[in-house]
Fold this sequence. Notes:
Layout: H1 3-18, E1 29-33, H2 40-48, E2 52-55, H3 58-70, E3 78-81, H4 90-93, E4 99-103, H5 106-115, E5 120-125, H6 138-150, E6 154-160, H7 172-184, E7 189-191, H8 198-204, E8 208-211, H9 213-216
Parallel strand pairs: 1-2, 1-8, 2-3, 3-4, 4-5, 5-6, 6-7
The structure holds pyridoxal-5'-phosphate.
Amino acid sequence: MNVDAVRTALAAMRARIDGVARSWSHPVEVTAVTKAFPPDAISAAVAAGCRSVGENYAQELLAKRPVLDHLDASDRPRVDFIGQLQSNKVRQLAGLVDRWATVDRVSLATEIARRDPAGRVLVQVNATGESQKGGCAFDDVAGLVEQCRALGLTVEGLLTVGPTNEPPAAAADGFEAVRGLVDELGLEVCSMGMTADLEVAVAAGATNVRIGSALFGPRPKQQPPVHPDRDHPG
Ligand SMILES: *Cc1c(COP(=O)(O)O)cnc(C)c1O
């Protein structure tokens, strides 16, 4: 993985973010999504200046652990788990994941609280109603935030994913609704926006965007995992 290329892509990404006319004054953090890219995408992202990385699959993240362990402590990025997560994978990932960003049910929150007491989490919202997407319904978010806190978890904010196979503008209403909920609940982090819909997300008030292909190039074709990291249909 070519560090200069990633650095150039990151600068272009920041220019895209800065180019969005918006009323928000908060900074927008870029999390480098390294899923399906080789392990050295993590070290390249860090060398290019990213302070956080996102991974989607438990086995893949475990396989990349040596790259993370090899970094100086001061260079170690925050590791966000951003894929759908089976509760039985939490034990192996505890100690490696710094922020569990796809908490969408109490059973998962309970397991995280057991394996990573006081762990940092984002509650994932399904803002599109698509059944293949993770995330809890809007109406369930406040209750789940409460339950996470009761379990001792640190709820930093919300995460959502825009609609699949729709033009980026189709994400706007959902993103604005999620941002509204972040404010209503007094949370800090609003993680939304990927390569295709980042402008829409930043305009709606994202504080964190999750970017893969715009930083690293087209994602290599990945064999579907033998045991997909999901245990529920939504
Ligand atoms: C893959 C992925 C991303 C990044 O997607 P790109 O289109 O490569 O930027 C962001 N968020 C989640 C949840 C993802 O699964």
